[in-house]
Design a protein that fits this description.
This protein has about 375 residues and is α/β, with parallel strands linked by helices. It contains 12 helices and 11 strands. It has 2 domains: about 210 residues, Spore Coat Polysaccharide Biosynthesis Protein SpsA, Chain A, CATH 3.90.550.10; about 130 residues, no CATH class. It has a 7-stranded mixed β-sheet, sandwiched between helices. Strands 1-9 form a two-stranded antiparallel sheet. Helix 2 links the parallel strand 3 and strand 4.
Amino acid sequence: MSRLKGEIATADTYDLSVIIPTFNEEENIAAIIGAVNEVFRQSGIRGEVLVVDDSSKDRTIPIVQEIAGQNGNVRLIVRKDDHGLSQSVVEGFGKARSDILQVIDADFSHPPELIPRFYEAVRDGADIAIGSRYMKGGDIEQWPLKRRVISLGATAFGRMLFPEVTDPVSGFFAVRREVVAGAPLAPRGYKILMEVLGRGRWHSFVEIPFVFKDREEGTSKLRLDTMMDYLRQCAGIARFTGTRRAGPVWDEWVKIVRFGLVGLSGIFVNMGLLYALTEIAGLYYLVSAAIAIELSIVNNFIWNDVWTFKSARDLRFGRRIQRFLSFQAVSVGGLAINMVVLYLLAEIAGVYYLVANLAGILIAFAWNYGVNRHYTWMRA
């Protein structure tokens, strides 16, 4: 784990530090630095630009060195080992010379003209300001189907940890230094905001809508190791919150684990009834399967109602029927989502079918939990 010292003597040299992680960004880096400095000039923010580079093989490093020689507020850090976007951002947190830290991509997928809004949100009291693609006013442009499915799945899974945050995997955010100083961050992969939310010391956040504009060059690849990195990150956050057994993330994980255990019990109910109705009662197996599926849904609803979300105190018949009908619809939707994701990724995007099925299962689980959490048991 990486702990930030938070004892930088020059921490108040600037109003804002804009951290730009880079690797082979020679086509964009000069333009993004110029755009950020223009934002500083127009807004009156005393800001620095901190480029944290993962030993680029192109001309990114000499370009930044030349710009830094002409602009005193531009600095370059070249990382020799332990490469990765999240690791670069965490190193930038430790080397920044201000108390408000902004993270932005080098390729203009994050609009630099919004930087003053993030700065003002944190300056006015928020611990974290998050750029959201999924709240009203946010959007994504020029993304192929595969990337949209991957992003929606990762976002849905992240929202199980942070249900009030619409875009917990955003790479465009600002944070108060105190949130990350001394925090046991374990940077991995690309989802550094998840680490900040899961391990940082924060109480309040705001979200700012933005339109994500993808770079024209390059492609995104869905690999099993990328998915596993993300799942390990979520598990690491869960373990961290589990040791403290307190806070909103811990409360959500208790519900998620219970929801998963209930789902597991439903599998046993389904399989047991399918066997009993077919082999013992002599019913046609498809009829048995339909009955088994429905009764497993009933089983899952009852346990989630009285245990996972603890709605036993609301025993009014009408309300319970409403919750059951909602749960039934969500369950059918989850099954459809699983099959659609499997088909789209495997048949259209060319993803290996087992990886595609895993993605479908995870997205369906996130759908089932998230929709039930926010609608079926909205007050739980």
